[in-house]
Amino acid sequence: MVLSDAPNGASFQVKKVNIEKEIGKRLADMGFTEGAQGAVVRRSFFHGPLQVRILGYDILIRRFEASGIEVEPVGDWSAAEDAHRFLGGQTAKQAKKMAHDAFGGKL
Amino acid sequence: MRNNTIRIALAGNPNSGKTTLFNALTGAHHKVGNYPGVTVEKREGSVIHNGKTFHFIDLPGIYSLTAYSMDEVVARDFILDEKPDLIVDVLDSTNLQRHLYLCLQMQELGIPVIGALNMTDEADENGIRINEKQLSASLGLPFVKITAHKSRGINDLLSQIEETASNSDGHSYRHNRNLLYKVSYGEEIENRLVIIEKLIKEGGASVDNSDSIAEAARWLSVKLLEKDKNAEARLSKLRNFEEIKAAAATAISWIQMHFGKDAEIVISEQRYGYIRGAVKESLSTIPKVDFSLTEKTDKVIMNRFLALPIFVAVLYLIFQLTFTIGAYPQGWLETFFGFLSGVINTYMPESLFRSLLVDGIIAGAGGVLSFVPLIVLLFFFLSILEDIGYMSRASFATDRFLHTFGLHGQSIFPMMLGFGCSVPAIMASRTLKSQRDRILTVLITPMMSCGAKLPIHILFAAAFFPGNAANMVMLIYACGIVISLISALILKKTALKGDPTPFVMELPPYRAPTAQGVLWHVWEKTWHYISRAGTIILASAVLIWIITNFPVYSMQDSETEAVTAAFQKENPNAGDAEIAAHLETLQADAVLEHSVAGTIGHVIEPVFRPLGFNWKMAVATVTGFAAKEIVVSTLGILYRVGMEEDEESESLHEALQNDPSMTPLTGFVFMLFMLLIPPCFAALATIKAELGWKWLGFEFVFLLCTGWISGCVVYQIGKLFAGL
């Protein structure tokens, strides 16, 4: 699971930063270190940046960088408010169900 | 300490209130410059405390001491090379963990550090209790509680500086450095750091700057493990550099094997781990962290549907306020300079010197100062927005779109302001933190059609597209936006290649701006403009005066009689005044045509032929560098319709329409060309002040090419469809 997958309001715990060199280091400097907990406060329109709360402050991060941060869900992500519903996509719940159907419950 | 002056570097994260503290400390006694070679602002100021002079240098706001951004390189180079006597690191008490991250890196640099725990009032309100004694004890550096925006705790801080400076006087501190606490990266990493540190000290003993190498040995060792290229370069002169490198490489591979991730990430994690431990004992949070106001406001401001409309509204409001209110003082200044010119014209006999004074120097100084009201107003509003914390929220809304073109969310401010005037717009690019984003934004800002180009558009649109004038002007504006975005895309792939700047920025909670902070900001920007750009603008005004007036030419008496007779024949009822006005226009035309500018116009005319321009348009292009408004009055003179031409004037319309070499196509191409070619000298001087000569040269050539090529393509294609 990567940070850019996290729906609005989802809490997460950082597992690993999978970005090369400087950007990865920068993210680690900003507090994205293993075990750090945070939450997605909001996601902007049309796949714009995410607002993420970590170490008690908020930062904006583009989806590209967020997709390089491996996270583990904390709590139930499917219960979190989802950003996609306004964009004609699916909610996390629906996506999960679809994945479940497709893989026959092996996930 | 040198003599009685203590040099203190002020460091801290962005949004830590560092600049507010700097202002509170130094009051009016500071000056603003740039760090050598870069456009990172450098503020310096002094205060006298108990007979000692404390000289503060405000370092750029940074998150870490990597070589990641220019700000960080500037900060660390300053500390390592200029060696301040001590560092005051400003920390946001409401956000202690992350701010300590920088503070502890500062501590490793081998210079005494004092932690200024800022925003104590806010922390209190939020139920955050910090035991600064406990914190000092566990981290090994003194902490002082302050609230910079209320000027609280400033004296405590000054006393602490005095105390620390006297303890660390001369070498005693430096030799006892090992007694200082420092971050522990865990026993196994520490063992390896000790080896590298020892090697660095050994090798460093034989070089010139052995002191600074020895002092920063610990920091350099850590940086080597973080694979920091700059730190490596610093050590490359050491005789045992290869040995050091080998030791570092061994340590790095050991860490990577042992921890299963990159060494630089491990170092960050260990540092945060250490901070967590230290903070646990000295920080208590009554769970009342109150984001409520920020939260509630953000729900609206950053709402995914409202963010963009709100942003557009804010922008529109700023634009309107700046350029509508600004028009009044601008008008007063114009009246004043007009009055001044009038007085001189009345009381001084006509001479070349009078002309230089009135048309060169006073016009130039007027040109410089007429931008000041706009700059003052614009930066008044922008610094309020920035202090409140709106700037980063605006990027949230716009970044997605602009990022496609290699721009940053905040690039939108300079771009939009460019529709008013390029000078303040280019200066507004300073709100962008990354140098690459800043350069790119500055380079495309002149393509936003500024207010001074509007008269040109109106004149040509009305003359050649009488039924569609407004639509044509709109089209030109749209062309500017589209071409600027395409240019950004091209520049991103060519001249400004390189890794895209990652968008990882802090979103600070809303804070009330302080009057002092805003006023300082406005003053700094205004002074910066007058001192940096003003001189160049004044010089170019004089230059333009010279090339439009030299070599001196006046009509022969016989010529005058001939044209007078011809005029009287055509207009039998003309009075003396009309004849005089006609003669004056002819004289001005003759002067301009025989001047250097006129010659340049004639000489470069062939270059403009593929665009369908005649020599008059070429001359107007040259004079337009003084100010784009002048293009219209130059054409007025050259088409002999009178000196006081403006875009409303019917006769210039007719003269342009009746010129057989002009067609609607050339009219449109001229508008497009004027939109895209390099801006006036004032804007060029501002680009020089912001980016330096190299980028100015690049921009000049780039815009000239863009303008010429676009004009040429449109003209040649248009000609194929003969109907145009």
Keywords:
heterodimer, A: 107 residues, alpha+beta, five-stranded antiparallel beta sheet, B: 724 residues, alpha/beta, 10 strands
- Kindly state the number of beta strands of chain B: 10
Shape of chain B from CA axes? elongated
What is the largest interface, and how many residues per chain? A-B, 37 and 42 residues
Biggest sheet statistics of chain A = 5 strands, antiparallel
Q: Could you characterize the architecture of this molecule?
A:
The complex is a heterodimer of chains A (107) and B (724). Chain A is built from three helices and five strands. Chain A has helices at residues 21-29, 63-66, 92-103, and strands at 11-17, 37-43, 50-54, 57-61, 69-74. In chain A, strand 3 and strand 4 form a beta hairpin. Chain A starts with 10 loop residues before the first strand and ends with a helix. By secondary structure, chain B is an alpha/beta fold. Chain B is 65% helix and 8% strand. In chain B, the strands form two sheets. A seven-stranded mixed beta sheet of chain B has the order 2-3-4-1-5-6-8, with helices on both faces. A two-stranded antiparallel ribbon of chain B has the order 7-9. The interface between A and B is large, with 37 and 42 residues.
What is shown here, in short?
Chain A is an alpha+beta fold. Chain A has helices at residues 21-29, 63-66, 92-103; strands at residues 11-17, 37-43, 50-54, 57-61, 69-74.
List the helices and strands and how they pair.
The complex is a heterodimer of chains A (107) and B (724).
Chain A: E1 11-17, H1 21-29, E2 37-43, E3 50-54, E4 57-61, H2 63-66, E5 69-74, H3 92-103
Antiparallel strand pairs in A: 1-2, 1-5, 2-3, 3-4
Chain B: E1 5-12, H1 18-26, E2 30-34, E3 41-49, E4 52-58, H2 70-82, E5 86-92, H3 96-108, E6 113-118, H4 120-125, E7 128-130, H5 132-139, E8 143-145, H6 154-167, H7 170-175, H8 187-204, H9 210-215, H10 217-225, H11 229-235, H12 241-259, H13 263-282, E9 283-285, H14 292-301, H15 307-347, H16 352-370, H17 372-388, H18 390-403, H19 412-417, H20 422-428, H21 435-444, H22 454-464, H23 469-493, E10 504-507, H24 515-549, H25 557-570, H26 576-594, H27 596-608, H28 615-623, H29 629-638, H30 650-658, H31 664-676, H32 681-691, H33 693-720
Parallel strand pairs in B: 1-4, 1-5, 5-6, 6-8
Antiparallel strand pairs in B: 2-3, 3-4, 7-9
